[in-house]
Amino acid sequence: MPELPEVETIARGLASRVTGDVIESVWLGSKPEPLKSTASDIVATLESKRIAGVRRVGKHIVFDLENGERASSPVSRKSRKKAHAGMPATTAQWIVHLGMTGRMLICKPDQAIEKHTHAVARLASGRELRFIDPRRFGRLSVAHGFQAQGAEPLEVELDLFVKLFRGRKTPIKSALLNQKLLRGVGNIYADESLFRAGIRPRRRAASLTRKELPRLCAAIQEVLREAITAGGSSVSDYVDADSEEGFFQLQHLIYGQEGEPCLVCKTPIKRVVIAGRSSHYCPKCQK
Ligand SMILES: [Zn+2]
Predict the structure, then answer these.
(1) Sign of CA dihedral 285, 276, 235, 61
(2) pLDDT for 237
(3) Which residues are catalytic?
(4) How many angstroms does the Cα of residue 152 sit away from the middle of ligand 1?
(5) Quick one: pLDDT at residue 54?
């Protein structure tokens, strides 16, 4: 499943390729699962919109859409300005969640439509933006004034971080995966962050000390930034916005390493299940 760093990488890849392009028309497949908004709402919201930008919000890819035609000539830009005077530039958002196996593909229209293609947006540049998802856990939706819940882990201030986790009775691992607190921290990066911070995943969030909380906050940001720099890591196979395989896989120090010696102290790494998810930790380095 693509986690935050992969989604960030994909969103950046999409932003550099389709920002400024105009969605001319939209085709949607007949499978209902990928559509979180109604098909007619998605089509009406996307068609004839200019892509003002693409960004990551938590684990969502958000396309910011503007009204109007592409401003290809000074004349049309002028008339567009007149027609939409006083209207906010960004009017809607197209939100894509990749789920387990979803991906976005930018290609020429003559490229064969792959099996499991659920949406095709035809762009004014002559290219197509396709959403492909074999397992159909991915979701497409549209919004007007999209606001995600939870704090952005890469931007969260320490004060807010402390406030979010202090007093919670759940294991810290579960709290890290709770998208209402922090958005976009998944299983792999939760384990890696807890290892770096020296905190056992089963500890109650409320038991974390004034020294441990800042250490954990810093560890989360460090791990995510490293993974983004490395181009995202993934345990399942998926491709980036240009359909090129092979993100560099950031070495997981703890995730998936059950029974292996800890890289710091050589103690065998343990695995426990917390809230249905595998959690890995070093019994000596993590308290
Ligand atoms: Zn260790």
Answers:
(1) negative
(2) 38
(3) 2-3, 59, 277
(4) 29
(5) 95
Spacing, Cα 268 to ligand 1 middle (Å) = 8
DSSP classification of residue 248: -
Of residues 263, 269, 247, the one with CA closest to residue 3: 247
Please report the DSSP string for 130-171 in residue order: EEE-SS---EEEEESS---SSB-TTT--HHHHHHHHTT--SB
Q: Which residues hold their Cβ within 5 A of ligand 1, which is an ion?
A: 262, 264-265, 267, 282, 284-285
CA of 252 to the centre of ligand 1 (A): 14
Helix (H) or strand (E) holding 5: helix 4-18
Predicted confidence (pLDDT) per residue in 154-181, tens digit: 999 999 999 999 989 999 999 999 999 9
N-term to C-term CA, the chain: 29
Q: At what angle do helices 187-197 and 212-229 cross, to 10 degrees?
A: 130
Tens digit of pLDDT for each residue in 165-224? 998 999 999 999 999 999 999 999 999 999 999 999 999 999 999 999 999 999 999 999
